[in-house]
Amino acid sequence: MTWFGYTPAQWALFFFLYSFLGWIWESGYVSLREKRWMNRGFLNGPLLPIYGFGAVFILLFTLPVAANPLLVFLMGMAGATLLEYVTGSFLENTFHVRYWDYSMYRWNLHGHICLTASLFWGLFSLVQVRLIHPFFSGWVTALPAPVAGAAALALALPAAADALASVRGAGRRHPAL
């Protein structure tokens, strides 16, 4: 079974790859801005799942229209913005934390999304689909299926343990959870 030419194990590897790249990007950017190391995100380890889910959402929304740059921009913008809003609302309502806040920007919705960030997601979608993903897709698809499956499982187990520990930690910080 494949989706847009990729097996479930390959999609899982893309998720982990983009989660790691997102962690590098976000932690590096915020650390430079704050002039001190900042491990960004909900998890303890070097993954920001919002970026992994975002990248996978962008691919699912844009691969069918990859030949049309305008549709890649619009579909990627829509998919990533929807994910960002749902995730931001979920984290705030469930864990009483806000990992990003766009309320200082014009045309925002509850501070979870804004037009500026949405336009960035559209631009990032073009960069991802046209430049980044073809490079990493070559690596992932070159792996034999058993190796891809084993690698996905090897990454999923510590990530699940980290997620469980992070949820427990959030529960201790917010006893109402």
Automatic annotation (TrEMBL):
The chain crosses the membrane at residues 12-30, 42-63, 69-86, 107-127, 147-167. It comes from the Bacteria. InterPro entries: CmpB_TMEM229. Keywords: Membrane, Transmembrane, Transmembrane helix. This is ABC transporter permease. It comes from Candidatus Allofournierella merdipullorum. The lineage of its organism: Bacteria, Bacillati, Bacillota, Clostridia, Eubacteriales.
